[in-house]
Amino acid sequence: MLYFKMSTDILQHRRVCNGSVRSVTYFCGGSLKEKRMYHAVYPVFGKEKELPFYLSGIGRTSPEFHIRRDRGLTSHQFLLTVKGSGILIVKDRRYILNSDSLLYLPPALPHEYFPESSEWETCWMVFRGDMLTDIMQNMGFMHEMIAADADLTAFRKLHRRLYCLAEDDLHNSRKCSLLIYQAILLASDLFDEKKVGSNTGNMLVDRAVAYINEHCSSDISLNDLSALSGVSPQYFGRIFRKRMNMRPMEYISRIKIAKAKSMLLNECISISEIAQQLGFASLTYFGIVFKKYEGISPSDFRKQNGTII
Hints:
Elements (H helix, E strand, L loop, with lengths): L1 E6 L2 E8 L2 E9 L8 E7 L10 E9 L4 E3 L6 E8 L2 E5 L2 E5 L3 E5 L5 E5 L5 E8 L3 H7 L6 E3 L5 H14 L2 H27 L2 H17 L7 H8 L3 H12 L3 H17 L6 H7 L5 H12 L3 H8 L4
Antiparallel strand pairs: 1-2, 2-3, 3-4, 4-5, 5-12, 6-11, 7-10, 7-12, 8-9, 8-11, 10-13
Helix pairs in contact: 2-3, 4-6, 5-6, 7-9
């Protein structure tokens, strides 16, 4: 066991096991009323640094500390308020972190947070990766983000599972990496849901549908549609499917095939020209997609339905 002084009135109890350092409990001031619970795991980095995502720390604090980081963190951080409330200050921006709120902080962002109530209890995780910043920014994580009054049931379960795995990080680093990615996806959806209400979500889908109908001859991707809507691809796919009862790429294919059926009635246009004009990669792929939705090949459809010429 290793004991060391954190400040004039805080003592931390730590032990090293299986390559990870575990902080168990903080005691403040000696009074039971002032007792501070701090459970955390800080893995020692080895081969984990070769993974796209790796955990640099995870824990639970009750009550949370007064933290000031003038240069920010080296890691990305998620902080979930379990109960009570805290104050976050980023530059001249001030936020209240109430129960059932999720906070994201990017690396190198100066910030300060401290309890607003005496029972501010938090769960948190910090994580890194060589290419993680680019990935996070592409998913919209570019500054501090807060999802207030969110349904954090799934995120809490994931945090508990990740904490248990991290206690034996010598054998579970790959599993932890997968769970960090799941946490990022969950957080992305939670932040998108707070930015987009149901009515606004319907408007985004309607605008995407209009865009698809107008540009059906183009090669449209899910990333194109999500960028047009200003939300993550995962969240856009979910609200599109909820409103249209099909995935975005299926809708695009159906629109192209509907257009193809109309064009096949004009015998002056060859089937290969139709495939090219509708943005299919090859005549063979056009035939596969057409048969998937119509049950027959484009040439058989033309024979059965004649032409308008």
